[in-house]
């Protein structure tokens, strides 16, 4: 297989030819690579036009790309913004000018962090294959690709493109990228048997390996390297977006992780099995109030999850089939009092990507004594009388809140309005995911207690 027809070192212009139906044809697409951002939007309006005429690409999460949308040629003002929890619009970057020519495809890529945001505008010819029939499309042998380094945790990197079963030791890097730089357009052969490798510059230390990847479309492909977040720390991921109606996908084989938290009273600990309890537990001897070790799952799929008291393979506390997905971080919270019939298990998907500006809080009701409670997260000094509950929670449920940073008072009230917990002062800082547990005491039963996840500095 010949990988490259020709290597083109273009700047932001150039590309394959196109034949639009109208001189007005153009498109715009937003890519969010701001590693710690909430959802962002691009707001654009023709220079001098009234604000009610503005257009926007809405609420784009990291890392993803919007679909391309059409726009007319002209001069535009461009803002990249996020919405506060009070639905106020805040600009992440200073306003930019955007010039849109005929038959152009504009890709607006934001990258970096919220504190140090950057923006790159790619401007290409608009591709149009509508005049080709199926046979003519099949005869097209090449397409353009471009790689962009938007991973702030990484320095200089080398990028390789090989056949699936080929080693990077047999090739020189295709190109080197520093943070914030791009490869320019590269013309490659269409094929379903590629492999993309990324190493630290001048080394064979692989920080990304796509395994087999198909690059066999007609349309130009943009590949974006950015940070990935998981229980092992920050690594690199590769995402891609096509030119029209595009989306971003991660082509790496994601690692799935699994851990358990034990809030079961009156047992020495718990063992967690996948399938037969005659086998070795996947998570062993998790004591009350503790987290297990984190277990990597090499074959995420539907598992028969069985929980027993430590060392007891015959007494089943909890049983459920659970479908693990690639790249997920799954926590199983097991709670209740043994031997009564109150054992509950909750599978909770977690995220380790730090979010600037806001704090994310998960509350887990693991207390059988708190069968149904109202939970209030209030401004300091505010009391729950007359306030609307932030969450109404039944035992065995969990809830999530996104909060502005700072101080709050937390109350937990029974359905008759009596106070179970509170006020408790909570302080939320930037870049953390927080977890709170409502639990019974180790001997079982009330009083309901509040326990804190690791992110709380107490």
Description:
With 458 residues, the chain is mostly beta strands. The chain folds into three domains: 4-250, Immunoglobulin-like (Sandwich); 254-350, Immunoglobulin-like (Sandwich); 353-458, Immunoglobulin-like (Sandwich), CATH 2.60.40. Helices cover 1% and strands 52% of the residues. It has one helix at residues 134-138, and strands at residues 4-6, 26-34, 40-46, 55-60, 64-65, 69-70, 74-83, 89-91, 96-100, 104-112, 117-125, 142-149, 157-163, 175-177, 186-189, 191-200, 206-215, 221-230, 233-241, 249-250, 256-265, 270-274, 283-286, 295-297, 302-309, 318-323, 329-337, 344-350, 358-366, 372-378, 391-394, 398-404, 406-414, 419-428, 433-439, 449-452. It has a six-stranded mixed beta sheet, with no helix packed on it. A hairpin with an 8-residue loop joins strand 3 and strand 4 (55-60). The longest helix is centred in the N-terminal third of the chain and has 5 residues, at 134-138. The chain starts with a strand and ends in a 6-residue tail after the last strand.
- Unreliable spans are 4-23
How many distinct beta strands? 36
Q: Could you please say which CATH topology of the largest domain applies here?
A: Immunoglobulin-like
Count of helical stretches: 1
CATH architecture of the largest domain: Sandwich
Largest sheet: 6 strands, mixed
Strand content: over 45%
Label the overall shape. Answer: globular
State the distance separating the first and last CA atoms.
59 Å
Main structural class: mainly beta
Task: Determine and state the CATH class of the largest domain.
Answer: Mainly Beta
Helix amount, in percent? under 10%
């Amino acid at each position: 297989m010949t990988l490259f027809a020709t290597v083109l070192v273009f700047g932001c212009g150039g590309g394959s030819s196109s034949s639009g139906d109208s001189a007005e044809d153009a498109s715009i697409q937003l890519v969010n690579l701001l590693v710690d951002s909430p959802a962002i939007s691009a707001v654009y309006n023709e220079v001098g036009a009234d604000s009610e005429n503005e257009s926007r690409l809405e609420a784009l999460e990291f890392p993803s790309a919007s679909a391309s949308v059409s726009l007319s040629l002209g001069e535009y003002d461009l803002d990249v913004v996020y919405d506060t929890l009070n639905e106020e619009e805040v600009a992440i970057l200073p306003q930019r000018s955007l010039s849109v020519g005929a038959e152009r495809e504009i890709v607006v890529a934001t990258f970096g962090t919220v504190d140090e945001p950057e923006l790159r505008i790619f401007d290409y010819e608009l591709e149009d294959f509508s005049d080709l029939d199926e046979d003519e499309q099949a005869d097209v042998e090449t397409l353009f690709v471009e790689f962009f380094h938007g991973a702030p945790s990484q320095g200089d990197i080398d990028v390789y493109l090989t056949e699936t079963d080929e080693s990077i030791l047999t090739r020189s890097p295709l190109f080197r990228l520093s943070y914030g730089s791009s490869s320019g357009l590269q013309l490659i052969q269409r094929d379903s048997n590629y492999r993309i490798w990324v190493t630290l510059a001048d080394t064979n230390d692989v920080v990304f390996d796509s395994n087999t990847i198909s690059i066999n479309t007609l349309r130009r492909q943009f590949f974006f390297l950015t940070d990935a977040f998981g229980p092992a720390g920050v690594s690199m991921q590769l995402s891609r977006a096509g030119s029209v109606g595009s989306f971003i996908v991660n082509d790496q084989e994601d690692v799935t992780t699994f851990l358990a938290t034990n809030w079961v009273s009156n047992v020495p600990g718990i063992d967690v099995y996948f399938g037969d309890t005659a086998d070795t537990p996947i998570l062993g001897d998790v004591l009350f109030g503790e987290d297990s070790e984190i277990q990597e799952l090499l074959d995420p799929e539907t598992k028969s999850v069985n929980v027993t008291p430590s060392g007891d393979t015959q007494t089943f506390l909890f049983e459920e089939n659970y479908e693990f997905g690639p790249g997920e971080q799954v926590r199983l919270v097991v709670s209740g009092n043994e031997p009564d019939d109150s054992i509950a298990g909750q599978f909770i998907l977690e995220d380790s990507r730090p979010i600037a500006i806001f704090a994310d809080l998960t509350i887990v009701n693991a207390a059988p004594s708190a069968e149904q409670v109202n939970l209030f997260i209030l401004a300091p000094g505010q009391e729950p009388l007359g306030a609307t509950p932030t969450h109404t929670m039944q035992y065995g449920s969990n809830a999530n809140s996104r909060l502005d940073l700072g101080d709050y008072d937390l109350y937990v009230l029974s359905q008759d309005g009596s106070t179970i917990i509170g006020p408790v002062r909570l302080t939320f800082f930037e870049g953390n995911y927080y977890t709170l547990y409502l639990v019974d005491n180790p001997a079982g039963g009330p009083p309901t207690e509040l326990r804190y996840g690791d992110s709380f500095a107490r």
